[in-house]
Amino acid sequence: MTEPKTHTLEVPGATIAYDVREAGGSGEPPLLMIGSPMDATGFTTLAGLFQDRTVVTYDPRGVSRSRRTDGLTESTPELHADDLHRLIDAIGGGPVDVFASSGGAVNALALVARHPEQVRTLVAHEPPVAKVLPDRERVMAAIRHMRETYEREGFGPAMAMFISVTAHRGEFPADPKELPVQDPAMMGMPTQDDGSRDDPLLGQNLITCTHYEPDFEALRAASTRVVVGVGAESEGEMAHRGGEGVAEGLGAKPVTFPSNHGGFMGDEFGMPGQPEAFAVTLRQVLTA
Fold first, then answer.
1. To which H or E segment does residue 123 belong?
2. Could you tell me one molecular function GO term of this UniProt entry (predicted)?
C-alpha cells in the first residue's frame, strides 16, 4: 500500500476531500471506509491493516477538509449518499466494498437503497437508527432534547448529554431529563457558550441521521450484499440496538465484531478499541 494521496471532488454545495491508498494486484475492488461525522483520520489504523487492498477514506461534507458551500445547516443521509455516489464515480464507478460505521452506516444504507450497482458488499457497523427501536418515540425525544440543549446552551452541555444518550443501555425513560448527565466541566468540555451552532454532529447531522428510516424494501431487493455489524462490548446501547433492528428489517442476523462502537480504531482519538481483531472479522465478512 502506498502513502495516501489526497484528492478533492466538487459536488453540489460542497468540496469533498478524500484519500486513496493504492494497492495493486489483489484483484479485489477498492474498500471504502466511511463514518459520519467522523472524518478520514478515524480510519487510519484500520486502513493500515488492509495493505493488500486499495483503501479510500473521506471527510463528509462540512467536516474537517470538506467544505460546505450550500449554507445549509442540516446534512441528510440522502445528501451524504449523493456525495458518496459521486465519490465512487470519481474512483472508477464501482462496484466497491464499503465498511461504514455509525452515521456513516446510515449514509451507506441510503447509498445502497439508491445505487446498489455501486456497492458489492456493505458492512454497516452499528447504525444509530432510532426508528427501528421498540422505544423509538422515547429515543427520538431524548435526541430532540439534546438538540434543543445545543441550541439553547451550546456545545458543552449538549455533548455531555450526547455521551449520556449513546452510553445508555436498554430502553429509554419516558422523560429525557431522567437520563443522568455529567457536568461538562468534569468531562473536560467547555461550559461557556461561544455562540457557534455549526458543530458537524450536534448542528448538522444529529436529527437527520438518527431519525432516518431505512428503505428496507429497496435494500432487500438490492444486488448489494448487506451485512450489519454490532459490537461485542456495546450490547444494549442505542447504536448496537439500531444495528440489531436494521438486521431484523433485512431478515438477517447481525455479525458481532470485537470491542465496542469504535472498536476498529487505534489511538486516533485516545480511545483505542481492538483494531487488529476487528480487521480479522471484517476481512472474514468481506470474503465470505
1. strand 119-125
2. catalytic activity
Is 70 exceeded by the pLDDT of residue 1?
no
Q: Which domains does the chain have, with CATH numbers?
A: 5-129+212-287 (3.40.50.1820), 136-203 (no CATH)
Q: By the 8 A CB rule, do 89 and 191 touch?
A: no
55 DSSP β-pair partners: 21, 31
Instruction: Write the DSSP assignment of 44-86 as a string of letters.
Output: HHHHHT-TTS-EEEEPPTTSTT-EE-S--S---HHHHHHHHHH
How large is the greatest C-alpha to C-alpha distance in the chain, in angstroms? 56
Q: Closest Cα partner for 94 from 112, 76, 109?
A: 112
One-letter amino acid of 98: V
Overall pTM surpassing 0.70 (yes/no): yes
Contact predicate 44/20, CB 8 Å: no
158-201, pLDDT tens digit by residue? Answer: 999 999 999 999 999 999 999 999 899 988 899 899 999 999 99
* 55-58/67-68 β-pairing: unpaired
pLDDT value for 29:
95
Q: What single string gives the DSSP state of each residue in 167-212? A: H-BSSPPSSGGGS----GGGGT---S--S----IIIIIIHHHHHT-
> If you average pLDDT over residues 15-31, what whole number do you get?
92
SS3 286: helix
